[in-house]
Each structure stands twice: as C-alpha cells, then as structure tokens.
Amino acid sequence: NIYIDGKSTLAIIDIQDVKEVLMKGIVKWFNKNKGYGFILTEDNKEYFVHWKSIVTNSPRELKVLEQDEEVTFDLIETEKGIQAINIIRTQP
Length: 92
Prior knowledge:
Blueprint: E1 2-4, E2 11-13, E3 23-31, E4 36-41, E5 46-50, E6 70-78, E7 81-89
Parallel strand pairs: 5-7
Antiparallel strand pairs: 1-2, 3-4, 3-6, 4-5, 6-7
C-alpha cells in the first residue's frame, strides 16, 4: 500500500506487503504475446510475473523473459495473490 500525504510530495510505502527480498528462481514459462508467466523457486513454489515488473537497463529494451532464465525478484501481496516484482535477469 502506498499512502500519499495531500500536503506534500512524500509517499510512504507499507513494506509489510513485500514478503521477501531478492529471491532467486528460474522462469518456468513466459508468454511474450500476453506479457505474463511464472517463476519457479528452488523449493518448487511458483509465482506469477507480469511484464511491467521486469527490470531492464533501458526503456527501449523489451520486457520479456525466456524459459529457464535465472532471475532474482521480490514478492508482493496483491488482491490476486502473491506476485513477483522487480525481476532482474542474473545473466543479461
């Protein structure tokens, strides 16, 4: 949750929504046309990933993932469940 004070430009982020920091996993699958897929962790847990959550080096770089690609990521609780965010390829 993000709380914005109407009198200033300060935004306070509720970090309780972030479950863990810098998790590791591999891309189970990613549909480039639909823009989403799943990441699989070492303990066989799957997390949804949306293309908007992929971190790139340039705004022109495509936000896509390849199957079996190694990534690091954070988790966040959403209305639809836990999702991967801040996905970074370990081998760009």
